[in-house]
Amino acid sequence: MKIHTSRRAVLAGAAATLMIPAVARAQPMRMRVSFDDQQVTYQLFDNPTTRDLVSMLPAELEIEDFSNNEKIVHLPRRLDEGGFEPFSDETPGDLCYFLGWGNLALFHGDYTFRDDLIRLGHLEGDVAPLLHKGTYPVRIEMI
């Protein structure tokens, strides 16, 4: 009987130890994008595409305006596309990966999902810094 109780205690302890990494992963992933005295922070979604992006950071790249609703950042390589999932709740502040060109799209205005985007995260706060026009060096890093 004593051995059975001891086994149960050992198994419970082992199970609790296995839960620690899952709890650590439950912490939100946050990414900062800084350019020309502007800064935005994104809360990232956990998917294969986001994890691949995170593996490249920190990165010094270039950010530029595209169309009238987004800024884009060209990446040094394509990302894993395993995070693809259709969505229909597009909102300004979304951070996406554009499958066509392999770039980041930082939306500050309305947009439409057309089977060509992987959503990576959403902006914390206001889109105002993304309205700052121009092409600038950008630093992207985890915080």
Q: Which CATH architecture?
A: Beta Barrel
The chain-level structural class is alpha+beta
| DSSP, total strands | 8
Q: What is the general shape?
A: globular
CATH topology: Cyclophilin
The strand line-up of the biggest sheet is 1-2-7-5-6-4-3-8
- H-E order: HEEHEEEEEE
What summary fits the major beta sheet?
8 strands, antiparallel, barrel
> What is the highest CATH level, the class?
Mainly Beta
Q: Give the oligomer, counting copies of the same chain as homo and different chains as hetero.
A: single chain
Percentage of helical residues? Answer: 10-25%
> In total, how many domains does the architecture comprise?
1
Proportion of beta-strand residues: 35-45%
The averaged pLDDT comes out at 89
What is the CA-atom radius of gyration, in angstroms?
A: 20 Å
Low-confidence stretches: none
Instruction: Give the N-terminus to C-terminus distance in angstroms.
Output: 50 Å
Could you explain how this protein is built, in words?
This protein has 143 residues and is α+β, with helices and mostly antiparallel strands. The longest helix has 24 residues. It has one domain: Cyclophilin, CATH 2.40.100.
Summarize the structure.
This is Cyclophilin-like domain-containing protein. By secondary structure, this protein is an alpha+beta fold.
What are the key terms here?
Cyclophilin; 143 residues; single chain; globular; alpha+beta; eight-stranded antiparallel beta barrel; 2 helices; 36% strand
Topology, element by element:
Elements (H helix, E strand, L loop, with lengths): L1 H24 L3 E7 L2 E7 L3 H8 L3 E8 L3 E5 L19 E5 L4 E5 L9 E8 L11 E7 L1
Antiparallel strand pairs: 1-2, 1-8, 2-7, 3-4, 3-8, 4-6, 5-6, 5-7
